[in-house]
Specification:
By secondary structure, the protein is α/β, with parallel strands linked by helices. It folds into 2 domains: 120 residues, 3-Layer(aba) Sandwich (Rossmann fold); 97 residues, Orthogonal Bundle (Arc Repressor Mutant, subunit A). The chain is built from 8 helices and 11 strands. A 5-stranded parallel β-sheet has the order 2-1-3-4-5, sandwiched between helices. Strand 8 and strand 9 form a beta hairpin. Helix 2 runs parallel beside helix 3. The longest helix has 15 residues. The two termini are 31 Å apart.
Length: 229
Amino acid sequence: MSIDQPCVLLVEDEPAQREVLLYNLEADGFAVQSAENGEEALELVREGPPDLIVLDWMLPRVSGIEVCRQLKSRAETRAIPIIMLSARSEEVDRVRGLETGADDYVVKPYSVVELMARVRAQLRRTRPASVGERLEYQGIALDAETHRVTRDGETLKLGPTEFRLLSTFMEKPGRVWSREQLLDRVWGRDIYVDTRTVDVHIGRLRKALCQHGGDDPLRTVRGAGYALG
């Protein structure tokens, strides 16, 4: 799994539907985890929060609507976009799904092409760099598609790890990221790297950002981590 790939959790109990969606999500360049019931879905989120969840309403053990309610009630999982899939087409059901916290609601049968577009739209909002968006912050511009970074018009040379770190910071300027969160996002959840490695690469990123002059835009938050701006 590439670290740049957004991770999508697919929760669907119907095998044929699950296979079709799994195939299309992977073909679109996403890393996909799948679950057959709500209980398994909650367990997978606990092990490592995905970037987005495609969630069927009618699930065994724990319903999709209850999975959604639980995840949206917790601070650590509230921001994960959830696209709810349902055969319920009544307005009252759509409203209930959205009021429970779903970010989008798709009625079955649906167009797979349209669903993929909705997945990308949600990720564009929460992880813009992962879907090739151009990010800008106080004179720094990052083009995720061409892997080019400039500051005040001057091209900056960044290594791949520093590029991923900067992408993470620029997606949420002002947010404080702990070393552990940066390890998960930049190096990957399944790779063991010492937290001091983060400090080394932050040092390299600072040097790269200031290679043509200008103030250091990265902030060290004592006991918490790092932030941009």
